[in-house]
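INPUT
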Amino acid sequence: MIHTIRLITVCVGMIVMLGSLSLASAASLEGLKGNFKKRFSTVVALKKDGKIGETKAGALEAVKPEYMKDNRVRSIVNTENADRRKLYALLAKQKKTTPQVVAQRNARRNFSKAAKGEYLKQGDGNWKRK
Amino acid sequence: MINCIPFRCTTIPALCTLLGLLATSCGHTVDVKPIRVEPIHVTMDVNIRVDKELDQFFAFEEELQSEVEEPAVDEAAKPETSS
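OUTPUT
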């Protein structure tokens, strides 16, 4: 009888833990989405200006290294990439794959969705305008 | 009768050998190697699921993109229309 109660307690505990983990994941996804939304217009503007572009690694990068001297560019690139890394890790965990796979899929998506005139970093490391 | 014995002694084994050779040459084995398609299937499945999740997550971009392209017209900036 005691064993059965212990077993039930352990099972309930595990269910509660799993539930709270998935809730935490959903909450952090929503938080990340909020961050991406806030930065979106600035990212679009900097892409239009030719200051930043998308890479095959699913990250943002300054088209020329000197553009990183600009605080606005540096801040956007760093915060966006930090949040992207978190997103890739979360989605990889959810979909039972690696963050690299998620990053590559997002890079593919970003390349196809890029507007005309935006810079895209090719596999050979050179920037090409769409 | 004397000639018949060597004939039988050589012919029967020769025929047996011939038949044996015919049997082995006619019968061929088809070695079918198992085709494994599972890894490709799994990879494609993962890619599709990841793409779907990314599309759902970044769905807000479509909305915001239209707002960025077509900024709201300021009421004060509107030209006056005389009736």
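end of record. Chain B touches chain A at residues 46-47, 49-51, 53-55, 57-58, 60-61, 64-65, 68 (CB under 8 Å).
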